[in-house]
Amino acid sequence: MADPSARSGHPVPTLMVQTETKEETETSARILYFDIRNGGLRLRFQLDRVLEAPSHAFEATFVSSTTGRPLFSALATLSANQEYRIDAQLAEDTAQGWESLKVTDRMPFRLILRTRESSQ
């Protein structure tokens, strides 16, 4: 269980899609760490709804909160304490637009998380 005193930002609306069963679940992700450096995104998040058998990795699609268009996809991997980690290079305009954001700010994106096939 996460420490309730730990810093976490606004919830990010998240749709989880289990590829094998085609089941969709709405939840939210709590952003625990957010940093833009040298055009790269480093992000950690924790899901508010945990799967019975947590996926070790998701394909995370970032969707603009304002336009509803997909921005980019990246691999989210499970780490300690049911946290997921993403390290991704961003398009220059996205990196510049997000570099002033802090973990406690409302994020300009929503997430679609797709489970990865077990053979990948």
Largest sheet: 7 strands, mixed, barrel
The number of helical segments is 1
Q: Oligomerization state of this entry?
A: single chain
Cα separation of the termini: 29 Å
What is the CATH topology assignment? Elongation Factor Tu (Ef-tu), domain 3
The assigned CATH architecture is: Beta Barrel
User: What class do helices, strands and sheet pairing give?
Assistant: mainly beta
Shape: globular
Bin the strand percentage.
Answer: over 45%
Beta strand count: 7
Strand order, largest beta sheet: 1-2-3-6-5-4-7
Q: What is the CATH class name?
A: Mainly Beta
Range of helix content:
under 10%
Mean pLDDT rating: 87
Poorly predicted residue ranges: 1-5
Helix and strand pattern:
EEEEEEHE
Based on CA atoms alone, the radius of gyration comes out at 14 Å
